[in-house]
Amino acid sequence: MSELISEGVQCKLLNSMDKVWDRPDSLIDVPLHYCPGCGHSVVHRVLMEVLEELELIENTIGIAPVGCSVLAYFYLDIDMQEAAHGRATAVATGIKRVMPNKTIFTYQGDGDLAAIGTAETIHTINRGENIVMIFINNGIYGMTGGQMAPTTLPGVRTSTSVDGRDVESQGHPLKIADMISILPGAYYVTRQAVTTAKAVRKLKKALKKAFIYQMNGEGGTSFIEVVSNCPSGWKMTPLESNEWLENDIFDFYELGDIKVPKKGIK
Amino acid sequence: MSKKLLMKGNEALAEASIRAGLKGYYGYPITPQSELLEYLGQHLPSRGGAFVQAESEVAAINMVYGASGAGVRTMTSTSGPGYSLMQEGISYIACAELPCLLVNVMRGGPGLGTIQPSQGDYFQAVKGGGHGDYKCIVLAPNSVQEMADFTYLGFDLADTYRIPVVILTDGALGQMMETVVFPDYDIEANKTDHSSWATTGRKNMRKKHVVTSLYLKAEEMENMNLILQKKYREIEKNEVRFESIFTEDADIIIVAFGMSARVSFKAVELARKKGIKAGLFRPKTLFPFPINELQHLSNQADKMLVVEMNAGQMVEDVRLAVNGNISVEFYGRMGGVIPSPNEILNNIINLSELKE
Ligand SMILES: Cc1ncc(C[n+]2csc(CCOP(=O)(O)OP(=O)(O)O)c2C)c(N)n1
Ligand code: SF4
Question: What is the CATH number of domain A32-143+175-259?
Fold first, then answer.
């Protein structure tokens, strides 16, 4: 098999029967309860790949609050705590302060992180808690059946904004990543996606950086937003949901780094 | 034994918590418990524990959840309004079977109320307070010494049963100064091994540990409830604590806890001087409640008088225990007022005259 170099990464030219991808060992081999095409599953996989590659499986405690990913501990083969709706970062603070050498991450939806848990989000980051926050922004309340979220775009129909989100009476979509990026405790803030293979690779890189920062004890909180989909809540096919993301949503939630550490990893 | 110290109740509790091996304290300012927060803020970090002033009581209780899930001794303290905010978190902690110490230095309510002492949160602490069927062990100190003693006891019980333990005290006990002696307490010897369930990372690739209170299937949720109920029955069997003073020959027995028991004791002494056979029964544990002992006393006394600093909360439990055997009267002051010994004495006199 010959080797070639692409994008600075060593690749192998594949034969037809070569295994190109395998589920990470720490992603438990059971059927996921997520709807087909839901971004949660992809983020789970990337997250576990990163933790495995950084050899952090034995050191990590994850916190999943209420939301579609409340059962993340069924799939992620690491120690986990399930938190009350909105309180994941408070739980994370409690753990990190008594075990500062452990790797701690939260995995939260937009209702969780940017509505009911806004105070915890801001103050955890303002204290610069040395944790990784993974924020799945799918613009809707998935678990409870598709109600408007703080992140829902203007005019978008949900079960609690049937005529489309009216910003006059229902407020504006909250760009919480931009908001918290001005806090001194925010160390690394980035907005990523899982719509394409390339986007997934970028997300993986971002996650890896965030966990390395944490283990190096650098700076403060790392905040990884993933602008994701909810085909069921959006009443779309997975493909349509991806197209909507690419064509409209990313115009509002622009992808890319929002705040990078001065001496961060490139 | 260490030497006698003169301390405020809140400070004695805080000092005892450090001596009991507190590793994580999370709290939010509210009168009349703020000395606890301040004392721990000053002393805990240099004595081996983490201190965080949280952004709210909601955050504080969830920080306790996290630290407790990591298997360390952890606590928070608050007063009425803050305790109300914590209820969702306490329900999660109870269901996830996490050990921790919660302190409610009660003040007068409802609403924003007053910062004066009260016992108005009895129902909330003893009956649950949050959603679902759960219990906390509830300890009711009545002196600065007991504020300290019950702190050690509270941590030990929390660890033994993996349950939240509440110290239900009030602004008067929190603020008053008395002498206190801290017992010799060996943190290591009293340590409980939580390594079979605590989330500390999968060292050596051991089986993963999960802290949760989620059971999607009704049968599984019921099963978890049965486990909890079994634990509560066990606690009721083993952990009832009370004090009985002058009750052996008493015709009238006052039942009171915490601050109102202190005042009632004075009233009992005054009644005895007048030749009235009065006694005092003081539950130290409000859950588990000393049901059998009260039943037993109801076979011997003529009447009971429950004295509380509320509109009548514990009296319901006393009546349930006595089950109609004798009459159970109530005297209470509300909204931050402490009854005087003479007020209680007058009630005792009235009851004893009714008898003749
Ligand atoms: C205190 C409380 N309020 C409301 C709920 C109901 N609830 C569960 S998940 C959820 C919203 C989930 O939305 P999000 O956080 O965006 O996550 P997603 O399901 O979209 O992944 C709500 C409102 C709850 N569990 N607890
Ligand atoms: S409801 Fe939406 S967020 Fe939840 S699993 Fe289904 S697609 Fe994913």
Answer: 3.40.50.970
Containing structural domain, residue B247:
242-355
Q: Which among B238, B261, B281 is the end of a domain?
A: B238
Q: Which helix (H) or strand (E) holds A135?
A: strand A132-137
% chain B with pLDDT above 90 = 98
Please check whether residue A95 touches B, CB under 8 A: yes
Looking at the fold, whether B232 and B298 belong to one and the same domain comes out as no
Ligand nearest to the CA of A111: 1
A134 in Cβ contact with A45 (< 8 Å): no
Looking only at the bridges linking them, the beta strands covering B285-287 and B137-139 are antiparallel
- Contact flag B50-A97 (C-beta cutoff 8 Å): yes
Which CATH number fits the domain that encloses residue B325?
3.40.50.920
Provide the residue ranges of all domains of chain A, joining segments of one domain with +: 32-143+175-259
What residues does ligand 1 touch, defined as CB less than 6 Å away?
A 66-69, 85, 109-112, 136, 138, 140-144, 149
Instruction: Please state the domain count of chain B.
Output: 2
Q: How far apart are CA A46 and CA A54, in angstroms?
A: 12
**Could you report the per-residue pLDDT of B260-312, keeping only the tens digit for each?**
999 999 999 999 999 999 999 999 999 999 999 999 999 999 999 999 999 99
Instruction: Report how far apart, in Å, the C-alpha atoms of B110 and of each of B79, B86, B106, B229, B314 are.
Output: 12, 16, 11, 30, 17
| Pair B246, B168 in one domain | no
B9 and B79 in a single domain? The answer is yes
Same structural domain, B177 and B248: no
Residue recorded with tokens 């019921």: B222
Q: What is the mean pLDDT of each run of 10 residues along chain A (266 residues)?
A: 42 74 92 95 98 98 96 96 98 98 98 98 98 98 96 97 97 98 98 98 98 93 98 96 97 98 77
Q: Does ligand 2 have an atom closer than 6 angstroms to the CB of A38?
A: yes
Instruction: Specify the residue with its C-alpha closest to ligand 2, atom 1.
Output: A142
Option in B54, B55, B201 nearest A102 (CB): B201
| B107-124: pLDDT as tens digits | 999 999 999 999 999 999
For residues B281 and B261, give the distance between their C-alpha atoms in angstroms, rounded to a whole number: 8
What's the CATH code of the domain at B102?
3.40.50.970
Specify whether B231 is located in the same domain as B265. Answer: no
The reply to whether ipTM tops 0.90 is yes
- Please write the tens of the pLDDT for every residue from A22-53: 889 999 999 999 999 999 999 999 999 999 99
The structure's pTM equals 0.96
- Do B17 and B34 belong together in one domain? yes
Are B80 and B145 within one domain? yes
Name the DSSP class of A16: T
Return the amino acid letter for B178. E
